[in-house]
Protein 1
Amino acid sequence: MSAPSISRYPVPKLEDLPEDVRARILEVQEKAGFVPNVFLALAHRPAEFRAFFAYHDALMLRDSGLTKAEREMIVVAVAGANDCLYCFVAHGAILRVYAKQPQVADQVGVNYLKADITPRQRAMLAFALKVSERSGEIVDDDHAALRAHGFTDEDIWDIGNISAFFCLSNRMANLIGLRPNDEFYLLGRVPKEKPAR
Amino acid sequence: MSAPSISRYPVPKLEDLPEDVRARILEVQEKAGFVPNVFLALAHRPAEFRAFFAYHDALMLRDSGLTKAEREMIVVAVAGANDCLYCFVAHGAILRVYAKQPQVADQVGVNYLKADITPRQRAMLAFALKVSERSGEIVDDDHAALRAHGFTDEDIWDIGNISAFFCLSNRMANLIGLRPNDEFYLLGRVPKEKPAR
Amino acid sequence: MSAPSISRYPVPKLEDLPEDVRARILEVQEKAGFVPNVFLALAHRPAEFRAFFAYHDALMLRDSGLTKAEREMIVVAVAGANDCLYCFVAHGAILRVYAKQPQVADQVGVNYLKADITPRQRAMLAFALKVSERSGEIVDDDHAALRAHGFTDEDIWDIGNISAFFCLSNRMANLIGLRPNDEFYLLGRVPKEKPAR
Amino acid sequence: MSAPSISRYPVPKLEDLPEDVRARILEVQEKAGFVPNVFLALAHRPAEFRAFFAYHDALMLRDSGLTKAEREMIVVAVAGANDCLYCFVAHGAILRVYAKQPQVADQVGVNYLKADITPRQRAMLAFALKVSERSGEIVDDDHAALRAHGFTDEDIWDIGNISAFFCLSNRMANLIGLRPNDEFYLLGRVPKEKPAR
Amino acid sequence: MSAPSISRYPVPKLEDLPEDVRARILEVQEKAGFVPNVFLALAHRPAEFRAFFAYHDALMLRDSGLTKAEREMIVVAVAGANDCLYCFVAHGAILRVYAKQPQVADQVGVNYLKADITPRQRAMLAFALKVSERSGEIVDDDHAALRAHGFTDEDIWDIGNISAFFCLSNRMANLIGLRPNDEFYLLGRVPKEKPAR
Amino acid sequence: MSAPSISRYPVPKLEDLPEDVRARILEVQEKAGFVPNVFLALAHRPAEFRAFFAYHDALMLRDSGLTKAEREMIVVAVAGANDCLYCFVAHGAILRVYAKQPQVADQVGVNYLKADITPRQRAMLAFALKVSERSGEIVDDDHAALRAHGFTDEDIWDIGNISAFFCLSNRMANLIGLRPNDEFYLLGRVPKEKPAR
């Protein structure tokens, strides 16, 4: 049986890609040991690929009051809300690796109120989900509630923008039928593994 | 009375911005006659500003089977669904200018089923709104329905990605409380005006 | 090209209408400079026309603790919630004229939480929308919350009944496919104009 | 124990009411054997009372392709959707009386898909509920579906307008906390009773 | 005319049933004067029948801080939320009988906020409906709110489990199209009647 | 650090339990290698425990046109819809083991439209989710659609009843805050493991 398709759209060959796009893909392959499908599928359109990952990196790699694990918690909770299999599975793996905790990703993705996280993190996810589901109802009091948990205004921007960015990402994954790599399902569930995007 | 704030976050002064960000802002000011607030408010974070507008331009300026007016229809319909005042008003203006039609923006933003548009455009907006509201339920039949209206696979990506990108944009606007410029409300409602972002 | 239809139902000619219905229509034409389409479309059934406008006038013209602009705010917010293009556009125009403010109608119709209105007006609209969307959940505390903003019991009745009446009106407009007059889109957006129903 | 209040608002005494309002109330009392509370509660505002019942009568008493029982089916189904106890109970009673069938009101109010009604009546109620719940989504095909069941355009107006009118009525009942008369609960459940409003 | 079917599935004859199932059915017939249709319809599968009624009895007959009428209030409120005609009608009858009050069942089933019940009972129904509609959002504070009304932890389990059990029951009734016995509609509406399942 | 609590309610000690309840628990421990928390938490009330597992076994162990893996697919899809962490994780493990496929559980739980399953299984899950989410809207056509995929009437009962039973189960898990055993998260993700309840 042939491998299942990873996208409703044509997936470019590495050698046909612009140099910078190919370099980025090889870099993640080097780090993760495989190429996450989102890189291959979005490379179908290099200009959007560049903007997408520039935005991603600006949010996920910047210095922030949020740890990398906390940022991935947001991603996984939002993926659950948006029924996005790719981000649930792929970022679930990354979250497990960053948090060095094999249960938290499923907990946060299915029901963050049941997760082994701190009250501060629960407030963070409540806000992230409000940004995802009912952003029109955000009022000053929502910002104030996060500040009461010690988040700075810049942290709040981070929480909101990560949620917003993955609302874009989840919709693209659902639009193109993006398939998670099999590797992600198991990653981080047993000790000694390393992150992939 | 002082002018109302355009964002919950600090708005940088032009002279404090990186050269490329300032250049982009001056360019839009030149073209539109004023600086749309989204440029000033997002310049608070230059890295995200660059990625945001790179993504925007990749989608909105590319050669496409969709006219520029059709792309703006998607933006306005999605803004209505997301209760995003900024995009409803600002992109409503741009849509009026591109379509050279003063009623279509309000029609599409409030209820596209009542708009003076073609059946093909109605199918386009139905799909864009499904991407915005229920992207997890998108199936092959949804793509097929658009192809039956003459849309190519690349057009469908455009429709879906524009919807997805403005789902991000709407959430950011709601997060920071982005205020539309007063100019947008009237733009394109009477003859002889020109577009702004 | 012929003019687009204003209703899914036959629109009577003025000369075929009962005297009182025709008189009412001529009166509004005199005042507004044109006949709002709702008058022509509902005249298809004179008995309901009379009751509809009697109810409308009882609510919108009575002495009230609500200004006329505030009453129109309710109408526009409810129209937005009910996806009613006619009332959004027509009453948006009336609101702009009464409020002598060109932005408030779009603000209130798209997202009242972003509007340039007072906290008292925000509480008024929150209640009006609860009457529209979830009236079965109204409890004494909702009334108390409005009284805390200085609304009397009669003001609360006004808020609720205007919301309820336009829930009827919005549904009729959607039922018959009522088309807003082109005039409404621009009315009140620049100084020195006068109201129409 | 004193009788429970029938409204959050003052209920006028019959002798304090304008002659025509009082006459209307006495007429219904004569016919039904008691005064339905909606008459007393809405008499708090005579001008609105007159418009409300004029509208009601225009819809419910006119010659129509819908039987009186069918019109009451619409009222009861819409009351169920709007969580309106008064109309569910009071119009349930009227429906039982008109239909000479003691189960149909509860069936239609709780779940019309389980009711002992004809396919034509099910189509009627599906449309009435769409007018109540999602009127912005009504398209020409919805009208066509009813015509396929033999409904005329005027019948469709009746169905839609009755639904819309009771959306107003349900919201007013919920606003003022209107209490159903105890009499309604039993009316029409055993043979030989007569209707009340 | 033949009697309408009580289920989409075959209804077994009493004589074909296992002894214990038949005995249970005869027992309820003896007590109620008729056999509620749920017994006949579920007897189609004796093993599930036994488990269903064992669960039912464990919850509804146990010693509890909730009266039998209160337990039936939960059932009727949940049936209303789940659009389950059978439980609305059948348990409405049982509630009327237990409460010796002919209005409370319709009140609780249509809108418990309008019912003649105590604040404690309103809190009980609010929780039962949260278990039915949004159980994933239950947090410790919900339990605390009930304890503030004097409910013990075991009472809270009862409230939640009765709601959960009838979520199963409502879905089964809707799955098989279970028809309420005509007797239930009138039961308990006039004095001197006795309960049935 | 002490182990996190598995329930909001007291968890009985094995030695304090009735013989049959203890025997059932020891049996599952023997088979699975550990005691799934649902057994311990529900043993708080032996009578309900017995009925719950009798119902469970009647559905999940009976001869059926559905494979055991298919039945678990229903459980996992419904758990996702009900935000039930326990059933998502525990039955996800069981599904992986039965299906001998490490990805299908996450696929079905997050978005069954993206799962590697057959069209027949997709129809099965669509129906199961309708039973869970909108059972009041089930009509004969829904049954017919399943028969068109080769399901018998008894298979349809199985699908619906499994969905309904786990709607009960999910609500109980959410009510008591039932915590999944850590073992479940990894089970079935790599070859050579065996099922647990």
Note: The radius of gyration of chain E is 17 Å.
Protein 2
Amino acid sequence: MRLLAFGDSYVAGVGDPEHLGWVGRALAGRREVTLYNLGVRRETSREVGARWRNEAAARLTAAEPCRIVFSFGVNDCHQEAGAPRVASAQTLLQARAMLAEAARVCPVLFVGPPPVADAGVAARTEALNENLKLLCARLKTPFIDVFRPLAADGLWVREAAAFDGAHPGAAGYQRMADLVAAHPAWRNLTLPLEP
Amino acid sequence: MRLLAFGDSYVAGVGDPEHLGWVGRALAGRREVTLYNLGVRRETSREVGARWRNEAAARLTAAEPCRIVFSFGVNDCHQEAGAPRVASAQTLLQARAMLAEAARVCPVLFVGPPPVADAGVAARTEALNENLKLLCARLKTPFIDVFRPLAADGLWVREAAAFDGAHPGAAGYQRMADLVAAHPAWRNLTLPLEP
């Protein structure tokens, strides 16, 4: 199986001393899975939307099952010049376009954005997380909500505050990986039942 | 620092149960380095040459130092219809074009191809490795030769034979990572001296 993960710096695992991030950690021990980690720092839904198609085309294969995971949103909620970098309605349009197109190629999963320390960004991200969840329900795209448990737990934000203000360390990424790996949507995606 | 690694399945770390590959292992503990692992299975120099520019453009930044690592060659040496997938002269032309163009953007390193079990592919890869080394010397691009030590050691090829015939496991990738991380060219690339 090949798993393509598109998104932002959290997908890339920025700040993880082991260079795994939550995606690599959620696939620990699964040596039969080829992971293509295609997270890019600072990217909003707009930049992911602009590149995912070409980067996927170079990596998808008919030789074995493929899966695509998307995870973005925090960067959309950061402000520039007094307004969010991408308005919520635009993020949802971008997400809908990507999810619909990707679903025509292979099974797709959306993993919601993690929490952040900045109160304003966190509030917008929480609202966007809810809207992304509703969108995914409408599209019948599996969605994993990590925002609430990571925010309630506090470890993620504490580690981020101690590093660069945005990215946690090994323990924070492991916490997110544990949430993802334990979710039925992840198991359905990565461990298909034998026919 | 951001490190972009372009190449084939060995760069991607296919078969590594920890999803690190030699690149991730060579950067262990370096949480200030953002790793973009852009290895893709089955790719020859031709496919890497066709995509590296666009994928690099999405990831390079003026915000901090960037580095590009290339590593390919084994897939060029595999035969299809009685001939290597890419003739040695073509591989060298592709490599020269990539290295010259990338060097105009940021410091660049070439890591030579690892050994393989198949005798014919191994012989062609060994010859190509020598020619890539000569090319890099002419271009003044740092080159790390892993073919000889990994072949002499035997672990890499044994692990590959026990898995899918091509890709080692954690120990093989760690052996290659140790060779790379101990090389002055890697240290120069990833640990620039303070001014």
Note: The CA atoms of residues 27 and 143 of chain A lie 18 Å apart.
